[in-house]
């Protein structure tokens, strides 16, 4: 069944970044709600959408309403082509170069893929005549706050980004507000704080920790290398956060919302919780800094140094504390910011990575 014939009066959504963590969870949510879902993927010589494999399986209940299209956020003509074909009611712009550390290495590309690309999407919606019918969600980020001016951070907190990624996302944030005000488009920003899951990319610190814990537990890795242990983040579950994205596009008027749990935790604590879940509780030895070591406290690996600090993982300009104030989302959207606790999130990620380390096909369950 082709993309047009499967619509049959259903609402239609277009998701950029559909191959990522958030895109896969959002696709599941929208399909379960009866949408026809279209996703953009970039051309690659290797298989680049394992998070979608279960949805693409013909046995998946709603697979016939899920369609992938080749396009790129830096290619305006390809965006217009897909918009004309799909005529979406809702557009979720989740695509970006989203790794903060990488943005210091690739600042120009990050500016294009995470900043200018937002303008591409908004202008493509106008060019294809969808500015009155399509509602637009932009995946903004807590990295906008950077060197924070107040704690916690709300919709009114001034921005002070501390990375090329944060700067690029700030451009996208204001592009959305400008198009909303200039063209009366239903366009909104979700300022999402850190959100994780077993589908998180392997180079992000939370997933790096849980994968290393699994490998150390199974004797396949000796030690985990980390950077700033005392950086504090507001971590929630991606599955909960994509539901809030959807809620934002169901409102009568477009508004920007902070999406976070209201609880902040250090990288140090996240690592402690992860190792404890795997039966390897750790304590810290040595003075704080690059000489500090995480050592297993009990069990068969007692005394083994499993966490060490490397200067290469410190950012050129660090963001020390991020803590979202979800009051507006709680009151206006009825969203529960703490549906999944940090302990539940850590447990799910560690258990999944242990499972996947022993069974390569187990990722299909997560």
Automatic annotation (TrEMBL):
Enumerate the Pfam families for this protein. Answer: GDP_Man_Dehyd
EC nos: 4.2.1.47
| Keyword Lyase (UniProt) | yes
Instruction: Give the superkingdom in one word.
Output: Eukaryota
Keyword terms of this UniProt record: Lyase
The NAD(P)-binding domain is annotated at 14-349
One GO term under biological process is: 'de novo' GDP-L-fucose biosynthetic process
For the protein in the UniProt heading, the enzyme class is lyase
Query: What are the protein's GO molecular function terms?
Result: GDP-mannose 4,6-dehydratase activity
Q: Which cofactor does it need?
A: NADP(+)
Q: Which InterPro entries match?
A: GDP_Man_deHydtase, NAD(P)-bd_dom, NAD(P)-bd_dom_sf
Q: Which family does it belong to?
A: Belongs to the NAD(P)-dependent epimerase/dehydratase family. GDP-mannose 4,6-dehydratase subfamily.
What's the name of the protein? GDP-mannose 4,6-dehydratase
Organism expressing this protein natively: Coccomyxa viridis
Q: What is the lineage of its organism?
A: Eukaryota, Viridiplantae, Chlorophyta, core chlorophytes, Trebouxiophyceae
């Amino acid at each position: 069944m082709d993309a047009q014939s499967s619509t049959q009066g259903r609402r239609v959504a277009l998701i950029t970044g559909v191959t990522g963590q958030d895109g896969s969870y959002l696709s599941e949510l929208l399909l379960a709600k009866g949408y026809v879902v279209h996703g953009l993927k970039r051309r690659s010589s290797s298989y680049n959408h394992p998070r979608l494999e279960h949805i693409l399986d013909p046995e998946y209940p709603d697979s016939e309403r899920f369609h992938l299209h080749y396009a790129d956020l830096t290619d305006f003509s390809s965006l217009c082509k897909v918009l004309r074909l799909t005529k979406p009611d809702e557009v979720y712009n989740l695509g970006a170069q989203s790794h903060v550390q990488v943005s210091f290495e690739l600042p120009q590309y990050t500016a294009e893929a995470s900043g200018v690309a937002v303008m591409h999407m908004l202008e493509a919606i106008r060019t294809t005549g969808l500015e009155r019918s399509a509602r637009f969600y932009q995946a903004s980020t807590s990295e906008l706050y950077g060197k924070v001016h107040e704690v916690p951070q709300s919709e009114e907190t001034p921005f002070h980004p501390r990375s090329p990624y944060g700067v690029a996302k700030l451009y996208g944030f204001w592009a959305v507000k400008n198009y909303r005000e200039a063209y009366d488009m239903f366009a909104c920003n979700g300022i999402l704080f850190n959100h994780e899951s077993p589908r998180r990319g392997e180079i992000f610190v939370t997933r790096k920790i849980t994968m290393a814990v699994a490998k150390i537990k199974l004797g396949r890795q000796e030690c985990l290398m980390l950077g700033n242990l005392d950086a504090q983040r507001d971590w929630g579950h991606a599955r909960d956060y994509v539901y809030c994205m959807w809620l934002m596009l169901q409102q009568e008027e477009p508004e920007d919302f902070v999406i976070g749990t209201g609880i902040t935790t250090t990288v140090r604590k996240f690592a402690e919780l992860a190792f404890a879940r795997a039966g390897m509780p750790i304590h810290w030895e040595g003075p704080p800094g690059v000489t500090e070591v995480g050592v297993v406290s009990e069990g068969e690996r007692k005394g083994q140094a499993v966490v060490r600090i490397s200067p290469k993982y410190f950012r050129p300009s660090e963001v020390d504390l991020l803590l979202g104030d979800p009051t507006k989302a709680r009151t206006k959207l009825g969203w529960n910011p703490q549906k999944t606790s940090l302990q539940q999130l850590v447990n799910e990620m560690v258990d999944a990575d242990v499972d996947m380390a022993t069974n390569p096909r187990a990722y299909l369950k997560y």
